[in-house]
Amino acid sequence: MSEAPTYEISFYFRKILVPIDGSENSLKALEFALDLAKHYGSRIVVAYAKPKGDSRGDPFERARIKIAREGLNVQYKVIEYDPSNSNTPSTLVREIIEGGYDAVVLGARGLSLTTDIPIGSTALSLVINSPVSVFIIR
Hints:
With 138 residues, this protein is an alpha/beta fold.
């Protein structure tokens, strides 16, 4: 049984970007975004920003499983950037602006090896530079 949205479409959360990298935190962020979508009628775009030429496996594999359980329609987007003049955070900020998003939901930390810091560089950069609200999920 699907729960009816609280609003037909919330003005604040019409379109939500969920950057993922396959980490547990990014999947927790996806769960949070899916909950928002159920309650507010939001459209979700799950994005993976990668350097050109990066040949890692399917970043959406585990995300698709979570999304299938919820029965929501989600768009997937791979965004390639040139690492000689860009990086993941600046690519995501550009996507936020050009894509007309109302909010961003992402994990506090990604796949970095350092466990001593509570928030990763991508999350911190988006909090500082994003023109829309950013939810950081731990």
